[in-house]
Task: inverse folding
């Protein structure tokens, strides 16, 4: 199994169960390995797996949100639409996948274990949308406030979709964000 596929499958368990709720057996089953093989790949156990998932997420945010939103050679509306499509379809599977940042921030121990990595991904997200907002003519303060709202609305849409068992709230959030700028 390729590294990317391995991490994505491990993330599926962490997204559903959180850090504390995920067992090594569940993680091993998700990638069709026995626990010994999983430990061989991740000697640091569950913490190393969660770290790898957060690193994968950070890189995804950097490559698919940040790098695109700061490309001033592309019109702001086009950048926004491309990024929202990637967020909706690729990152969250149209609302079917919960956010790994949310899942790993739910446990009491997250701050010490993962707080900096979670913050780094969210800050990169906000920085990218701040640049976009400024390219739409907003002041830096207004652009940053709007960037935070984008993150809040997407996260909220995921939670509400999960709670209601309907993808519609998340889909509506993605659509409303297109009109927000």
Result:
């Amino acid at each position: 199994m390729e590294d990317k596929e391995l991490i994505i499958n491990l993330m599926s368990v962490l997204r559903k169960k959180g850090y504390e709720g995920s067992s090594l057996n569940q993680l091993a089953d998700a990638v069709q390995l026995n626990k010994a093989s999983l430990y061989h790949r991740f000697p640091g156990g569950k913490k190393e797996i969660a770290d790898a998932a957060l690193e994968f997420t950070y890189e995804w945010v950097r490559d698919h949100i940040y790098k695109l939103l700061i490309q001033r050679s592309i019109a702001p509306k086009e950048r926004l639409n491309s990024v929202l499509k990637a967020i909706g379809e690729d990152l969250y599977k149209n609302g079917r996948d919960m956010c790994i940042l949310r899942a790993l921030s739910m446990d009491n121990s997250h701050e010490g274990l993962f707080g900096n990595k979670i913050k780094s991904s969210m800050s990169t997200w906000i920085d990218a949308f701040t640049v976009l907002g400024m390219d739409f003519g907003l002041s830096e303060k207004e652009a940053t406030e709007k960037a935070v709202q984008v993150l809040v609305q997407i996260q909220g849409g995921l939670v509400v979709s999960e709670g209601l068992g309907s993808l519609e709230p998340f889909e509506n959030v993605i659509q409303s964000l297109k009109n927000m700028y």
About this structure: The first helix runs from residue 3 to 21. The radius of gyration is 17 Å. The chain is about 80% helix and 0% strand.
